[in-house]
Amino acid sequence: MQAVTLDVLLAVPVLLTRILDPGHGGGGFGMKAMMWGHTGVFVFSFMCFVYGVVSCLVGKTPYIPLVADAAGRQL
């Protein structure tokens, strides 16, 4: 369930980009905010991946606090 929740999280920046549409070719604040958002989601997802791999190598079940809570609410 955590993997499904992370997959949904990856779709959020694309949806926000389509909704807000900062313009074609504009380099204003909207575009910079979108870039920071995409970068933040990527870094968070990458760190979750690294944490999951390390947890599996150690023999523990990965528990990502924000993601596990959201996944737990889906059950």
UniProtKB/TrEMBL annotation:
Membrane topology: Multi-pass membrane protein
One of the record's GO cellular component terms: chloroplast inner membrane
A Pfam family that the UniProt record links to this protein: TIC20
Family annotation (InterPro entries): Tic20
Places the protein is found: Plastid, Chloroplast inner membrane; Plastid, Chloroplast membrane
Alphabetic keyword roster: Chloroplast, Membrane, Plastid, Plastid inner membrane, Transmembrane, Transmembrane helix
Stretches that traverse the bilayer: 33-54
Entry similarity comment: Belongs to the Tic20 family.
Role this protein plays: Involved in protein precursor import into chloroplasts.
Protein name listed in UniProt: Protein TIC 20
Organism: Brassica carinata
